[in-house]
Design a protein that fits this description.
This protein has six helices and 14 strands. The chain is an alpha+beta fold and 297 residues long. The protein starts with 25 loop residues before the first helix and ends in a 5-residue tail after the last strand.
Length: 297
Amino acid sequence: MEAHQSIDLSAHHGLVSDFFKWPANKQEWEQYRLTQDQIDFFNENGYLAGIKFLEEWQVDQLNEELAAIADPEHPDHALFYQFFSNASTDVNSVLFHALGAWRITPGFHDILWNPAFVMAASQLLGDKVVRFWHDQLFCKPANHGGVVAWHQDYSYWTRTAPLQHLTCWVGLDDATTENGCMYYVPRSHRWGLLDKPELAGDMEGLMEFLTDEQKAEFKPIPIELKKGYGTFHHPLLVHGSYENKSLRSRRAFVLNVFADGTYANSDKELMPGTPMIPKGEKIGGQFFPVIFDPATV
């Protein structure tokens, strides 16, 4: 039998399948633009929810791909940057978390070039050129799904600067308070950078780093979404999600981006297994491609 030959899709900076249709002109792009009211809401509150990113057939295909690559014996497993069948230390509180799916399957690769995603991301970054940072998969199985502790994304990303990042979360199941949907703390993106807790540890670990004023303003709201819908949030917005004790799974993917011109703020590798980019040098190359340039629209 022939040995499996891995194909690293990170070498392809554009659509590799018919998962999406790339708009051909400015008129076709218009349907994907956010309104000024949506942009204003994001700037005021630090998040924007309820955006449709995927049709049901696309969700189904991604869930099929997810089921295959979640197996640690998958032949392309080595292409993941990180892979935790359970990022929690508790076998009764499972949080599947993996980075790098875009390198492995066509669907998870092409969601980077979803027109609805890239156009909105550019607008929320101030109409800048958008460069890919990294992806994530988060899965909470039915009955014993674990928490994602309160945190700010950028507290884990200080190896990159300046702070001009953006996160997009998309549900592959309906997300509800029962199965562990995302919670946001509105306007907490104005609190500055906080210390970082253990992501799959104590849900309330962040609290010891908050001032009395911040604790008084700590009023999380649940973000319930139908599958295929998602959110954007600011890299300093405090967010997290509770455990899943329901009879339904809660699967999701996350796309993290930054504006072009972001530079390495560390002499260590930015993502495991990628070539080191010297501190102070602009981030680019195979693993951090430009995914949208508004000047081309």
